[in-house]
Amino acid sequence: MAAEPVAAHLRDVTGETAGLYIRRGTTRVAVIVKLSSRSIIYRSDVGQLMPMHLGAAGKVFMAHDERVLNAVLVETADEAPGESRIALDRQLEFVRGHGWLLTEEEREAGLNSLAAPVFDASGTIVAAIAVGGPSSRLDRAAAEEFGPLVADAARSLSRRLGYDGAPAGRAPGTTSEATA
């Protein structure tokens, strides 16, 4: 799989566990995991299911697939007060604008994650590539350094899948402007 060496490269550059996630309903599943060689790490397993609404990889899916976002909002409606929705909207806008997202201690105390979207030829999000690690190392300063690297890795995978930067619903190679 083309993503294996990309995930391994991210692990090696960041020193943190890296992985690739795909969507399964309102959850995400790890399909590639490259564990960090450090003593204190984020540990994941291939096949591990995780909630979509907690962690960077899930929020990347939510930012780029309105159906997923709406389904998760319905599923978690009893859990999320209004302030949480405002914070979520800010996160979704950040990932749409910057191409990557850092989340801090959402799934577990002391664990942060950083992720970016992978698109197919039609512009549909098909995966999220991510790194996860202890909040003492994968902090906001590290995210500023590693976020663009994770986004570059996601763009590389997207290009391998035929993505040309066109949003979903617009044919690759066409423009959004009307032609005369």
Structure description:
This protein is an alpha+beta fold and 180 residues long. It has one domain (3-160): Beta-Lactamase (2-Layer Sandwich). Helix content is 38%, strand content 23%. The chain contains 5 helices and 6 strands, in the order αβββαααβββα. It has a 6-stranded antiparallel beta sheet, sandwiched between helices. A hairpin with a 2-residue loop joins strand 1 (17-24) and strand 2 (27-34). Helix 1 runs antiparallel to helix 5 (140-160) and helix 2 (56-64) packs across helix 3 (66-75). It is globular. The N and C termini lie far apart (43 Å). Residues 170-180 have low confidence and may be disordered.
Topology:
Blueprint (H helix, E strand, L loop, with lengths): L2 H12 L2 E8 L2 E8 L14 E3 L4 H9 L1 H10 L6 H17 L2 E4 L6 E9 L5 E10 L5 H21 L20
Antiparallel strand pairs: 1-2, 1-6, 2-3, 4-5, 5-6
Helix pairs in contact: 1-5, 2-3, 2-4
CATH homologous superfamily assignment: GAF domain
Helix content: 25-40%
Unreliable runs: 170-180
Counting H and I runs of at least 4 residues, what is the number of helices? 5
Our count of domains comes out at: 1
Q: What shape does the CA trace take?
A: globular
Alpha-carbon Rg, integer:
16 Å
Q: Biggest β-sheet: count, sense, barrel?
A: 6 strands, antiparallel
Strand content: 15-25%
What name does CATH use for the topology? Beta-Lactamase
Tell me the distance between the termini: 43 Å
Structure summary, number of beta strands: 6
Give the CATH level 1 class: Alpha Beta
Per CATH, the architecture is 2-Layer Sandwich
- Average pLDDT score: 89
How is the largest sheet built, in terms of strand order?
3-2-1-6-5-4
